[in-house]
């Protein structure tokens, strides 16, 4: 799917399309249960608007207009583009780091043994394997890992 819109579910997992959709529904419920996620998205939106106004003022200065002279067509276009770019980039980063954990938690709730950090499917590992072979994170309910 790509970096911007990804499912975060290992393609090797034997899941039908409907099952993947149910897992994503569970993940969105887990995500929305945490009020900090909405706060972070609002913060990113406000930050993108502030950065966009800075870009608009920079365009005004480059075009030789005095600071605070308002928005003209060039600075308005630059501001709109900056809002979209900063907003999309910030939202995609938040999704990457906040929603991914919800998907992995939903998978674990459905009985799939996946790493909570990287989503690696921990199937066919010996019972004494306490670390994820992909990222070295300790498996839940087991003892400490050797991260060497």
Characteristic key phrases:
148 residues, mainly alpha, 2 domains
What's the short version?
By secondary structure, the protein is an all-alpha fold. The protein is 55% helix and 0% strand.
Question: Mind explaining what this structure looks like?
Answer:
The chain has 2 domains: 17-109, no CATH class; 115-148, no CATH class. The chain has helices at 17-33, 35-62, 73-109. α1 packs across α3 (73-109) and α2 packs antiparallel against α3 (73-109). It is 55% helix and 0% strand. The longest helix is centred in the middle third of the chain and has 37 residues, at 73-109. The chain is an all-alpha fold. The protein has 3 helices and no strands.
Q: Bin the strand percentage.
A: under 5%
SS-based structural class? mainly alpha
Distance between the termini: 32 Å
Number of strands: 0
Radius of gyration: 22 Å
In the predicted model, the low-confidence regions spanning at least 5 consecutive residues are 142-148
Helical stretch tally: 3
Overall average residue pLDDT: 78
Judging from the principal axes of the Cα atoms, what is the shape?
Answer: elongated
Q: Please outline the major beta sheet.
A: none
Total tally of structural domains: 2
The percent range for helix content is: 55-70%
Order of helices and strands: HHH
